Amino acid sequence: MNNIKNLNNKKSLFVCAILLGVLYSCVPTKTLKEENKNVPESYQTLSTDSLNTANVQWREFFSDPNLISLIDTALVNNQELNIMLRKIDIAQNEVKARTGEYLPFIDLKAGAEVEKVGEYTRNGAVEKNLKIREEEEFPEPLTDYSAGVFASWELDVWKKLRNSKKAAVMEYLATVEGKNFMVTSLIAEIANSYYELVALDNQMAIIEQNLEIQGNALKMVRLQKQAARATELAVRRFEAEVLKNQSHKFEVRQQIVETENRLNFLIGRSPKPIERNSERFIESEIDTVYAGIPAQLLQNRPDIRQAEYELEAAKLDIKVARANFYPSIGIKAGVGLEAFKPKYLTSTPQSLLYSAVGDLVAPLINRNAIKAEYNTANARQVQAVYEYEKSILQGYIEVANQLSNLDNLRKTYDLKAEQVKALTESIDLSTRLFQSARIEYIEVLLTQREALESKMELVETKRDQLVARVDIYKALGGGWN
Hints:
Number of strands: 6
Distance between the termini: 75 Å
Radius of gyration: 40 Å
Largest sheet: 4 strands, antiparallel
Number of helices: 11
Number of domains: 2
Structural class: alpha+beta
Helix content: 55-70%
Order of helices and strands: HHHHEHEEEHHHHEEHH
Strand content: 5-15%
């Protein structure tokens, strides 16, 4: 008899092994697309110096105390940044939730029930003819009271739950890097707006100075007309030029208001005047920026690290989706007390109940949903690879562009400074020549106009230099630390 039982057990195990083998052989397998992390050795130069400005903290990168104060305020009050911080909290809670999924669930359960069954039913007939004791019959209706502890646990044999938790961790880290990239972008946007505001102040000062020069020229032309040495046309042309620059002054003033309000929005407060130091803007020194080597972008840029974490999460999601093809193994157990009257709950072992169940469930027919989820996970992994490679390429191109921009702006600024110097000297020269009737009034007008435009362009070039310095700091991955 024992031999027959052993034979049956072996047959059962053999059948289970065959079924598992068939299920395993039906699980689809796709080759993961590998990411390309290769970057050039340098930024279009032969320099391979690893000194990198991205390692400088933003408090040391910026020297203007007013700008530093604005950034400090924005890091606390900016609404977009605070929204991102809440997303980090959500991602952290998701990690905790998935961690708990592969641990046993233990529940405390208590209940009370009342039931009345028909007398001409199986249960009713049994209760009618059955006595608990000689002196006590079944109560009608029948009540039931219970209390106990019950546990359930899905054995994570295929690491589905643990890989799901690891994927949540990767998503959490990606969210943190997303926050760091937002900090970098926010700091860069505040700095660029601040430099634009200071540049507008300097342009306003230039317009005021030019209006004073043109006012003096207008007085001179009027005197020339009284002496019959100039015409009414010259007077009207000079007046029109003065009016033009007066209207330009209000345009610049509106730009100042809008730039101030943009800064106020970034730091999370209602419109107020922005404290700033606009003096010696033109004389501002542009410090040297060290780009390091392109390979450092993989560690310094938060957006590249974010894409990397999202790629790792996508790889883990494939493992989770593949594990859905395998059988899931669950264990359920419970122990407690149950009786039809509360006074019998403590009467053990009669009121004692316990249970233990183990089950194995595997998908066999109609696995389209599981296959679709697996194919979707693979498609997302390929998408994440392209996103990662795109972020690396984009980072390299941004740095290369800004390095070239800094060099070209430096050369442009030097030439424009010489232009401003020449045209500024031409204003006085043209005025004297006009007074001596050696040139026409139109040459004086053109000289003053060209001098104003060149000064305005010089301010804009200085602003572009400061903005380019900030942009390359952001492109290198600085500012978030």
